[in-house]
Known about the structure:
Elements: E1 5-13, E2 19-22, E3 32-42, E4 48-56, E5 67-75, E6 81-88, E7 91-96, E8 103-110, E9 119-129, E10 132-142, E11 148-154, E12 161-171
Amino acid sequence: MATELQFINSFEITSSTSAFNCDNIFSADYDVYEIYIRNLATVGTTETSLYFRFIDSGGSVINGTTYDYASLEMKANTTFAESRSTTASFIRVGLFDAPPEGSNGKFVIYNPYDSSSYTFLQAQASARAAGNLAGYKAIGVEHTAQSVRGIQILEPNVRPFDEGNISVYGVK
């Protein structure tokens, strides 16, 4: 059975921000979504991490310690690094750096609109950070059974991003 993607919406980051909301992208029409981020880059020249939070059915960002995640950072120039948490206020999904290096990623979201299920995330990203190639893999869950309608892309370490493209698809 072939996977068919249905375009839902796209967003463009064009100014400096530490948090960018992609709201009203999930609905009862799909159980699985794919989100693609291209050319995400920081304002400055310091490498930083990328995080996701979900937006609940009322439009509020879920920022409590209800997220679990595990990630693997695979930099070409150094030892691979693992990161994990069972009490985070976000899901760590990648890293990025200043242009022209930036970052790209594919993020799969499962069951976001189902109010009787947890929302799961699977992430794969690539970047050039400080001139070196890096890969990134992560899994995560927001562990309250509630309906989720969007995501927030977040950089909480005072190194905002200022450009990037986000595309959202439903999976049939």
